[in-house]
Design brief:
about 350 residues; alpha/beta; Udp-n-acetylmuramoylalanyl-d-glutamate--2,6- Diaminopimelate Ligase, Chain: A, domain 1; UDP N-Acetylglucosamine Acyltransferase, domain 1; 10-stranded parallel sheet; 6 helices
Length: about 350
């Protein structure tokens, strides 16, 4: 593809030769003379001046550099779009593999690819364009909209409802039983039936080996456009808003309520029945056991305001030094108190 065509398709202002031949897209340190890269973080701006790339996707105000530039407001998203123009994932032809088990009552939309050893239970309904790769299992009563894509070994449990353009990565589990038990009169834990389904809005991605548990009653809900990373646990009866990111190894206890446009960074934790407001950011390894108002940035465990946490961490690192200073001050004060007056008093006695 010519650089001029790429700029046109991305809607970018091109400064450089439109006739450069572009063969791919790479990171700024790996890109070669026929490849495009990007700068979205200011700390990489210096690398743009030394890159071997044919062209760099940058913001409109970015200074001139030796390489050609494609200038537009969101270079990171443009980089993602450019990747899609050059990388073509495997294509899966419509059809049902002979080893797949599809119940006679299941409704399969047009153009579906049903891979080897897939199991589709009774009364399942799939919209057009579904792709189910080997060993995917859909329990009875599952409903999924158009363009449902399930990678190998993904599982959707009974009566769960999935919107359009849902992607489940390898080993994702939607609708496993929530962790609910009650004690009987003998002090034994007895399983509470988990009767409520999971509902995923449109354009939700659930990454590898993540679990979204079904509800005891009601439903567990993930809002449209939200993304759930690898090894995330969403507890039963939780509600996650729209366009929220839940990063790797995060855990939401049962009945958590997460707002729209929230970012839960890696290894964060939410205690049960807590509400996290719209636009909240929890930095990595933070944990909260209380409601968080909208727009806050929270750090630490237990979590509190990020700005206070940054100051606290700085002080914590200085504690050995501060302890020595306090010890020296105590000795100085003690020497002053027990100084000449104390000696004179002793002599008089």
């Amino acid at each position: 593809m010519k650089l001029g065509e790429l700029a046109s398709r991305l809607g970018a202002e091109l400064r450089g030769s439109p006739d450069l031949e572009i063969t791919g897209v790479k990171g700024i340190e790996e890109a070669g003379p026929s490849e495009v890269t990007f700068v979205a973080n200011p700390k990489y701006a210096g690398l743009a001046r030394k890159t071997s790339a044919a062209a760099v996707l940058v913001e409109p105000e970015f200074p001139e550099i030796e390489a050609a530039t494609l200038r537009l407001r969101n270079p990171y998203h443009a980089f993602s779009r450019a990747l899609g123009m050059f990388y073509q994932p495997p294509a899966y032809a419509p059809g049902i593999h002979p080893t797949a088990v599809v119940d006679a009552t299941a409704e399969i939309g047009q153009g579906a690819h049903i891979g080897a050893y897939v199991v589709i239970g009774p009364n399942v309904k799939l919209g057009p364009g579904a792709t189910l790769l080997p060993h995917v299992v859909l329990y009875p009563g599952v409903k999924a909209g158009q363009n449902f894509f399930a990678h190998a070994h993904a599982v959707v449990r009974e009566h769960c409802e999935l919107g359009d353009d849902i992607t489940l990565e390898n080993g994702a589990i939607v609708g496993a039983d929530g962790f609910g038990f009650s004690k009987n009169e003998k002090g034994q834990w007895v399983k509470i039936p988990q009767s409520g389904p999971v509902r995923l809005g449109d354009r939700v991605d659930v990454q590898a080996n993540a679990c979204v548990d079904r509800a005891t009653v009601g439903s567990t809900e993930i809002g449209e456009g939200s993304k759930i990373d690898n090894l995330v646990q969403v507890g039963h009866g939780s509600r996650v808003g729209r366009n929220t990111l839940i990063c790797a190894q995060t855990g939401l206890a049962g009945s958590s309520v997460i707002g729209d446009n929230v970012i839960l960074a890696g290894q964060t934790g939410i205690a049960g029945h807590c509400t996290v407001g719209d636009g909240v950011i929890l930095t990595a390894q933070s944990a909260v056991s209380h409601d968080i108002p909208a727009g806050k940035m929270i750090s630490g465990s237990p979590g509190f305001d990020n700005r206070v946490w940054l100051r606290a961490v700085t002080i914590f690192q200085r504690l050995p030094e501060l302890l020595k200073r306090i010890d020296r001050l105590e000795k100085r004060v003690s020497a002053t108190v027990e100084g000449p007056d104390a000696k004179q008093s002793g002599a008089e006695q």
